[in-house]
Design a protein that fits this description.
Length: 445
């Protein structure tokens, strides 16, 4: 009887469905990594590093599960200091690799602090919003959260590590939405990002088609990025349209606060100047990624090579695939970054369509269980932590599958549990451990 009671207690403290999906995708990922690098001369080093990271990740998962997640809420200021110390430390003492200073090189493996800091940022932001529960609808809450997070994102961009920001921001947006933030203010953020993205993509398209910049709207848009007078004129036009919209609604006796129109106007102008900043500071390899997204066939031997070869490899697998360690496109070296950015191409070629559905299915199970556990949480903090972790993993999944399909630009973001990357694996398993901690301390019926 005591043994049976112990087993039942352990089962009550662990979501076995989430655990099963996690184990399944980790095992599948290890097999895919070994298959992807089997033909490489340095495959032993990659496999050895992954086999070192795997037990560390399982230890992180066990720590996250057994450690009461509410401690992060109580000690969030210390956790915030830990984030800043890590990010400052890597700038001072980190190793410079692939154009960024983002790594600590240790005796047996390298560590990327931004991966751990991403999960810590989620825990800190959830703690801050929990304390601002009474004022969550106010603009001041968003402003103070921005002040809190600005040093973190600033230090990450100094490395620079833009992909880390790409994953973290959507997770924070999901966190704000679930916390009950004013949808109007969230919409302003989306408007700013949309306008900045629109101008960035538009100017890249004009760069690919210079003949369009000779006259008409193409000429005006091109001048807008480089001519101060055009910027000033466009800013005045946007301000005039904002005033006109306010006057129009007033005539219809739809009395909306003028403050709203001012903020919308400022968001549009901020998006414009944000796009100009990106245009003038975009690095060549980043511009190539946007060009590849817009026209992958325009340079099949250059910027579009990665995506095209990955799609060819995935398509060649058919429904059932060629079998593990039997992919021809990947083994012959046609698929670049096959164990990291384009690991799904290896899955599609060797395991076929069913393998892709298997990976997608395991991810959807993980996301589903995170949502279920969020609603089971015994406090608001646990709910918000689960919501943000859901946003993080959803972003990972969306970017990687979208990148392979050509509907999302190549961003250099790994697919957790499947792609090679020790720091990402450890951080992702820790995040799931925190979710399990919320489940272990849930409201019991």
């Amino acid at each position: 009887m005591p043994v049976l009671k112990t087993v039942q207690n352990a089962r009550n403290r662990m979501d076995t469905i989430l655990l099963g999906a996690m184990v399944g995708i980790v095992v599948l990922g290890a097999l895919c990594i070994m298959s992807a690098v089997n033909s490489l001369s340095w495959s032993n080093a990659i496999v050895r590093t992954h086999l070192v990271a795997l037990p560390l990740g399982l230890m992180a998962f066990a720590f996250g599960w057994s450690f009461n997640y509410q401690i992060y809420d109580e000690q969030w200021k210390w956790l915030y200091g830990f984030i800043l110390a890590l990010l400052v430390g890597v700038l001072l003492f980190g190793s410079y690799q692939r154009g960024s200073r983002s790594w600590f090189v240790l005796p047996f493996f390298s560590m990327q602090p931004s991966e751990i800091c991403r999960v810590c940022t989620i825990l800190v932001s959830a703690a801050f919003l929990t304390r601002r529960g009474r004022y969550i609808y106010d603009l001041s809450t968003l402003l103070w959260l921005g002040v809190l997070l600005a040093p973190i994102f600033g230090l990450i961009m100094l490395q620079p590590d833009f992909s880390s920001v790409v994953v973290t921001l959507p997770a924070l947006i999901v966190l704000l939405y679930c916390a009950g933030a004013n949808l109007f203010y969230l919409g302003l953020g989306a408007l700013f990002a949309g306008v900045a993205g629109f101008f960035t993509i538009t100017w890249t398209y004009l760069y690919l088609h210079p003949d369009l910049t000779q006259e008409g709207i193409g000429y005006v848009l091109n001048q807008l990025a480089h001519n101060g007078w055009y910027m000033l004129g466009f800013s005045g036009l946007v301000a005039l349209l904002g005033y006109g919209a306010w006057w129009f609604f007033k005539q219809l006796r739809i009395l909306l606060p003028s403050f709203y129109f001012v903020l919308i106007t400022l968001a549009l102008l901020a998006g414009l100047f944000g796009g100009i900043f990106i245009e003038n500071h975009m690095k060549p390899h980043q511009r190539k990624r946007v060009e590849t997204f817009l026209a992958p066939n325009s340079d099949p031997q250059g910027a579009g090579y990665n995506v095209l070869q990955a799609q060819i490899a995935m398509g060649s697998g058919g429904v059932w695939g060629k079998g593990l360690f039997s992919g021809t496109q990947s083994r012959l070296g046609f698929v670049p970054e096959k164990h990291t950015d384009f690991i799904l191409a290896v899955v599609g070629e060797e395991l076929g369509l069913w393998g892709m559905f298997l990976v997608l299915g395991l991810y959807l199970i993980i996301l589903w269980r995170i949502v279920v556990i969020a609603y089971m949480a015994s406090d608001r903090y646990g709910y918000l932590v689960c919501a943000s972790i859901f946003g993080m993993f959803f972003t990972y999944m969306l970017v990687n599958f979208g990148m392979l399909l050509g509907i999302v630009p190549v961003a250099g973001i790994p697919l957790p549990f499947i792609s090679y990357g020790g720091s990402n694996l450890v951080a992702s398993l820790w995040a799931l451990g925190v979710v399990q901690s919320v489940y272990a301390r849930r409201i019991r019926a």
